[in-house]
Specification:
The structure is a single chain. The protein has about 325 residues and is an alpha+beta fold. Helices cover about 20% and strands about 35% of the residues. It has two domains: about 130 residues, Diaminopimelate Epimerase, Chain A, domain 1 (Roll); about 180 residues, Diaminopimelate Epimerase, Chain A, domain 1 (Roll). The protein is built from five helices and 17 strands. The protein has an eight-stranded mixed barrel with strand order 1-2-3-4-6-7-8-17. Helix 3 packs antiparallel against helix 4. The longest helix has 13 residues. It is globular. About 45% of the residues are buried. About 5% of the residues have low confidence.
Length: about 325
Amino acid sequence: MHSVRVFQVDAFTSRRFSGNPAGVVLDAGALSDPDMQALARELGSADTAFVLPPDGADHDLRVRFLTPRGEAAFIGHATLALHAVLATLHEPPRPRQKHAGGIVQIDTIAGASPPRIAIHQGAPPPSALLDPRALSAVLDALALTPAQLDPRCPPSIAGAGSRRLILALAEGSALAQVQPDMVRLTRLSTQMDAAGVFLFTLRPAVSDVFTEARMFCPALGIPEDPVSGNAHALLGAYLWQHGLIGQEDGQEDGQKDGQEDAPQSATLEFTGAQGHHLGRPGHVTVALSLSGSSLESVSIVGEAVVVFATTLEFQAGAR
């Protein structure tokens, strides 16, 4: 028999029963694919990270991400969760993580309790404007009107691979009024080739944050995602692209500033709130690394807490 250690973790939060839940399975190298899929379904979280030994010298561990429906290339909050588990167990950091999407660098911030983890990724490609007819259909499916949009923020499709529609509302109070038609959003997501709709505002109704957001992913089997690290990374790149972050004091919102005359290197940070509309409040810190006028990388930073842990036994090598 082969034993695996199983953890339920809440990510992007410092309190249990909030943030975004994820499963983490250590010592998963001997599990069969059906065992992994069955365990992901049993845990009931949207996403579970299965930790495998490295298969090369360029990384420290491998990870497979499974949902109750299938496998994903990379999941930010589950990555945060697994490295928080390693830190909670006082295991040595394993900063180079390999998964189906490539290799990312993970930093465990020393001395943080609960564990605070930074995930570093390359800059995503620039976002592309959404077709006006598609925008009209999406707004109708969300029970929103064009007048509720922030005119500074063009509706756009962002990301490579698993893409997201980014849509800005003028006021945070409008986020609570959204009434999505999940059937229509699922169909529109397929038509737009965007797996989710990420709504945000630069005028949050939540204190001490720069943005407030909600995300709907019915096409992935997730009606509403509590807290998304990947979407916040795309948001950070979007805000930089459109000159909505990094302004000097006293300039009007929306003006591009500091991009032509930017220093050789700089870091911009902001914190976003998400999940409170589901009763699972969480926070994501986004750090943008700049070189001159170019965005070099995007990091997402957050805390995570272990909710419970157990050990399960499987028959080794069963297929």
